[in-house]
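# nightly structure sweep
# worker-07 picked up a monomer target from the shared queue
# config: single-sequence mode, recycle default, output format = structure tokens
# input follows
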Amino acid sequence: MTIAISLKVNDGVVLAADSASTLVVRGLSADSSQGSVANVYVNANKVFNLLKGSPIGLITWGSGAIGNASISTLAKDLRRRFAGEDPQHRDWVLGTPGKNQNYTIEAVAHRVRQFMFEEQYQTVLSAWPENQRPALGFIVAGYSSGETMAEEYQVIIQNGSCEEPKEVRPKEASGVTWFGQGEAITRLMFGVSSLTSVVLQQSLGVPKEQLEPAVEVLKQALQAPLVMPPMPIQDAIDLAEFLVDLTIKFTRFMPGTKVVGGPIEIAAITKHEGFKWVKRKFYYSREQNPED
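# output follows
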């Protein structure tokens, strides 16, 4: 499980995630879509810069791998294409950072879908029953060439299919979007639970057709306006980190497997500074690898 956050304000966009990766062992029967948690690792990478030196970021949730390749490895394979280091895909090159670039975040999101879903997911998992194919999602965020406001596009693979990339919010709008284990943030931001509609129906007898409107009324009345468009980027970073940390601590004390945790990774993308790591983990010593 995961908590993956994209938080956008006027000054840029912040991507933040935990580092937990859950290993699920499927049942033995051929048609089983269920499984049990074999282990939870806490060093997965979920935030990426899609082209070094350019203001383009990627955050992922859901399955941590496609077949034998981790999403981290695949994201770096994709980055090689964008950088012109893959001679078989010269038409994927986004240009030299700061010089001859002419791309849009929407077009990059379509490339993410093409690579991750069409080339990798569909090829590797084509023999799997649809009900056993893992869910997987991405948000591509950053600045299109020459633009002054950041953009966010989501690519979601569900039940073996994947729609075209969808804009998370209008370019001029601000807000926060989260995927994965979102119960803690939903309660904080909207004052409701994922079980609110169940309680309304079973305990108060609210008719089924009125459940969704009732929950929306509660959200509007109880929501906490934590994201404000003029927020400085540092405050947006602090808020994103708080929301990830909140989720980690919430799941820690709730019954069940602790499927959110590990180090928090954060990246901020702004117009002038581009993609900058705020928090990042390394599996090797930076002192012994100064070139990185």
